[in-house]
């Protein structure tokens, strides 16, 4: 990464060159200069075009190298094939960065990819950082530096990093309709050919004009570096992200259960949250959530008090909060008594609080109720839902003055208790004076109950992260060499897929709790192993070439001693028939096991975020239930416990149908041991432990599959198959 000062010269330049400047008013090269002049940019503007002398009163220079003064940033609006020549010319200057607008690079096929590599190489050689290519540009709103050409971008405290020009325009337009919402900076990151998402974070974090960072992400080229940077930034500046491409449509078939479940959405949401980034799933939530995080204190917990002037709004608000994992706790007896003093008998004074007409004639009752609820020790945040701010429209004009007074008191109340208040009102889009008072003081007013609930969810999530940030992963690996002998032997033999026997040996070598097993190379050895098991056994063909052992007829469960030898022969015959060329090592013999809960523990190398662990309900229905949680490796203990808490079927872990509760500490220890195993063995690309039996006595790995990375000399990585659960 370049020094922060270089990023500052790019984001807040004192001199800009427009390369490809034009005398044609319809061209980007003319419009860019016009926008800079009329937008109030006070720095130097240097048009560059070898065929012109003057544009809008400015002297035109033939090349960037011919400009007499220092240039911080170049806006390159030439066709793609000209960009290398421009960068070569800039090599002798002190240019800090260039915004490459053109398309036709990495997004345009093989030739475009080659051209992109060329400009990145040139930029690196000349110590020039690139924004883009394939970008709409960048804006420093407070400095009047608009290299996009978008009109009416409102000024404010949000720094926007966006991978879609049209999405950026949508967000500019939406902010223009929302009072109190605006931008400090915008960067169209484009193809991330050089400057990546994470490299903008330190600058925006240190920028006094930026209160929150907003991301629209289609894909990150260096997601692991982003997690590391976000972890450092989020304790000071909140980050909100909308990740597109959440569906599984077009996703290549995965080679393991973990890979099959590790969709973009599931992994991205979990690991971004782990780094403290707040994720939203809807575009209409993005700015509302960012505005809430930038203007309100984080919530101390998930407990929300609801104050509504109608039963419908109260119920819908409670539903929306519950759907997002927030709590609507009962308020104390003292709070209920205070509410009863100001509300009619028909009112509900528990939570949600429904004023039942108690505010129709005197809106000051809103404050009395809000003050009681916010003072309640069971409440971490307040949602005021219904019609507040619109009583002057709905009932009588004189009520507007009363509501303005209440709005001012609500602002004071929020500040005094340092408690977030979010207002949902059917009149949010009417621009009423009470709402203006709230918004100017940082209290959001939104029309949608769902958006209000999402904002409160984000405030609670951010508050939880702030309280535990130091306990989470730093996303950095220490291991460089593989320390498991079995993995080293497999690499030497040129194998990517470990047999189950080899995988279990590697895990056992590390001290992980693997069910006892023996490799039998003859019917007699199988019988000896079964006799020592003291009960029925599981028998499975061992071959690195047969991953789906059940499909090959290579699995037999509950085999009694009398049937072991015959079963051995049957399994080998079935395997040889299924895959005549397979290298069959023998048959794995293990005692049968049962557990109150079957879990899956897996690791996959995500293309954006690197190695990620999954844990959830396992067994044969894992891909049907999809009740799993993800975190980026390496794990901390806090990460591991959070993963267990994310599993929806908590009743299974707590002891459903009379079963004892699972030993959570043992599961956490297993997750940490697997994390350490993968960190110590960088060659591991995917790992599946399914099932893992868990009960009150601990955990035991029943089946294991490990895939290694392709050799680094490979030009193409072909996914190796990883077996499904056979027990």
Task: Explain this structure.
By secondary structure, the chain is an alpha/beta fold. It folds into four domains: 4-17 and 62-244, 3-Layer(aba) Sandwich (Rossmann fold); 293-471, 3-Layer(aba) Sandwich (Rossmann fold), CATH 3.40.50; 474-513 and 594-727, D-amino Acid Aminotransferase, Chain A, domain 1, CATH 3.30.470; 516-591, ATP-grasp fold, A domain (Dna Ligase, domain 1, 2-Layer Sandwich). It is built from 25 helices and 29 strands. The chain has a seven-stranded mixed β-sheet with strand order 9-8-11-10-12-13-14, sandwiched between helices. Helix 1 crosses helix 6, helix 10 crosses helix 17 (449-468) and helix 15 runs parallel beside helix 16.
Summarize the structure.
Helices cover 37% and strands 20% of the residues. The chain has 727 residues and is α/β, with parallel strands linked by helices.
The largest sheet has its strands arranged as: 9-8-11-10-12-13-14
Shape type: flat
Q: What is the percentage of strand-forming residues? A: 15-25%
User: What is the C-level CATH assignment of the largest domain?
Assistant: Alpha Beta
List low-pLDDT spans.
249-262, 713-727
Structural class category: alpha/beta
Jot down its keywords.
37% helix, six-stranded antiparallel β-sheet, 727 residues, 4 domains, seven-stranded mixed β-sheet, Rossmann fold, flat, D-amino Acid Aminotransferase, Chain A, domain 1, alpha/beta
Secondary structure: elements and pairs:
Elements: H1 4-11, E1 15-19, H2 28-38, E2 44-48, E3 54-55, E4 58-59, E5 73-76, H3 83-90, E6 97-100, H4 110-125, E7 129-131, E8 138-140, E9 145-146, E10 155-162, H5 165-176, E11 183-188, H6 197-206, E12 212-217, H7 223-233, E13 239-243, H8 257-261, H9 264-274, E14 278-280, H10 283-295, E15 304-308, H11 311-323, H12 333-342, E16 353-354, H13 364-375, E17 381-386, H14 391-394, H15 399-417, E18 421-425, H16 433-440, E19 445-446, H17 449-468, H18 485-492, H19 500-509, E20 518-520, H20 523-531, E21 537-542, E22 555-559, H21 564-578, E23 586-591, E24 597-606, E25 610-617, H22 622-625, E26 628-632, H23 637-646, H24 650-654, H25 664-680, E27 684-695, E28 698-701, E29 704-708
Parallel strand pairs: 1-2, 1-5, 5-6, 6-7, 10-11, 10-12, 12-13, 13-14, 15-16, 15-17, 17-18, 18-19
Antiparallel strand pairs: 3-4, 8-9, 8-11, 20-23, 21-22, 21-23, 24-25, 24-27, 25-26, 27-28, 27-29
